[in-house]
Amino acid sequence: MANKKVNAVIIGAGAGGGIVAKELATAGFSVVLLERGRWHTFNEYNNDELISQRSNALTCPFGPDNEKYRRTVPDGKGGWRVVVPNEWPYGNNAGCVGGGTLSYGAMAWRFMPEDFAMKKTYGHVEGSTLEDWPLSYDDLESFYEKAEYEIGVSGDPSLNPFAPARQKPYPMPPFPYNREGNMLEPSARRLGLHPFPIPMLRNSVFYQGRSPCIHMRTCIGYACPVNAKAGSQNTVIPVALKTGNCRLLTNCKVSEIIIDERGRASGIRYFDAQDKAKTQPADLVILCAGATETARLLLNSKSNLFPNGAANNSGWVGHNLQGHAYCGAIGLFGEEVYDDAGPGACIAINDFNHHNPGILGGGLLANEFIRQPYLFTGLRPPGHARWGKEHKVFQRDYFKKHISVVGPIQEMPVFTNQVTIDPAVKDYWGIPVLRISGYRHEKDLEGCDFLASKAEMWLRETGAHTTWKMIPGKETGAGQHQAGTCRMGNDPKTSVTNTHGQAHEIDNLFVADGSLHVTNGGFNPVLTIMALAYWVSAYIKKEWNGTRFK
Prior knowledge:
The structure is a single chain. The chain is an alpha+beta fold. It is built from 10 helices and 17 strands. The chain is about 20% helix and about 15% strand. Strand 1, helix 1 and strand 2 form a beta-alpha-beta unit.
């Protein structure tokens, strides 16, 4: 059964989709916003760490459902194995209204000018598809500002000497340091580094009718009980719905983009909350499902004109998958350093993000979000017992006497890091699932060792009597920082969309999520996803005349 035709159908109500829905609905577009999950509230769940969205121990409380979703990953023996959302190799993004912004850590970083011009900065990298973005930091600066003010960011950019140029400060003051921050700040300065408070998509004061943060330890991985954590679900989506121009459909799984005989998108097919097959006609189709699911949908949308998937005659959809190679160090202290002030992460340095001899890019370093007891069981010095009495004694002795300093290394894009469609495995609705495969570039691992060494140096200066590095493995990652599978560019042969997120091959099909990222920066990417959503929306509002683009 077909629904009434609308101007725009948006797939995914997360960081990007919520913003696009608000921008178009307030401009008078008729909009349908589809989300595979549902609305959630804080009171639905207790603070059990084993059901935290972050721990993935038992389930994913904010979706997707283990019973209905599948992916396949290499089994290490030349074959493939099936994984479900609460298994780490799945590369899960929350499936709910707000997406990952409901339960994320909420760091609010702008990419640096070099992040948009990595090839210009570092030159050709053998074995990588490294390229410059078709836009610059200056192009995106006002859209970063719009995200910071409409969604809400706290911080003080004047304290970060490496911060890129900006027109306005953050709308809210920074958070004070916790005990860890007060220990790490003077030691960083003794090392000649430049510490500052982390910019956060959390209210440090009352803002836009929402309360300030109450510093719960159960912040990352959970919904916020006072709505201090800013996500699309408590900022832009309510604005979109209030216009009367936006209809939000939850618990809906999109299976295909419908491509007409002219090669244009005419709408989408989906399964509704009762698992009934439906169609939604639309003038515009806008994909905001995250870099894995957006690519999956395009690859599953085959037609005579696009036998390899919608907008994929170039063969680039699904390739160049990037996450972040998280690395750092752990330090053990003789005294308690834990003060139970959530979310924990509060202090950062940007001294090692670029221009490190022999290293391509780099990343921020910050103290880690609070690791509750279950996650702490995975932090042990090399060679230490992982079970038994020794393990338990370490857990009791050092849970409140450790500090983790971590950061995301900017990964080099590699063509064979990819998502493809599994030829045999299907999900609950009979939709072919995706495969994730590939290996990080060797330069990523060199960068990880470099950044982890700097984290270890900082911890030792702070007084840690024992330190060790955390270095990730070679396998590509696709978690909450997933990016790159529908990269933007000027050349249709080596990119999927143009500078404005518009598919080269289908002019009424857009992407507005991390899939667009040519490179993924040395930062949490959510603020850049938000800025790009405003950027893409501005182009649509300006250029669409109701029937075609000007």
